[in-house]
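Page 42, continued from yesterday. The earlier attempt failed because a stray header line got pasted into the input along with the sequence. Redoing it now with the clean sequence only.
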Amino acid sequence: MIAQFGRLLMLIGLTLALIGALIVVFARYAPDGRLLPGDIVIRRDGLVIYLPLATMIVLSITLSGILWFISHMRR
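This time it went through. Structure tokens are written below.
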């Protein structure tokens, strides 16, 4: 039981480290706050609409991969 808890903590730590590294890399290449070229920003008088389409697709694929890996490790 303790060994499984230890593995879970290591997996959570590894996941957080990976997410932190991705944030640092994206922040370096996105000085204006936009992460990917597919993100849409609409600016009008007094209104800004931000649609992070490409970012959501990348996050979805990344999180799906992480969750698949977690479920695969639990078997």
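Notes: Strands lie at 40-44, 47-51.
Reminder to self: strip header lines before submitting.
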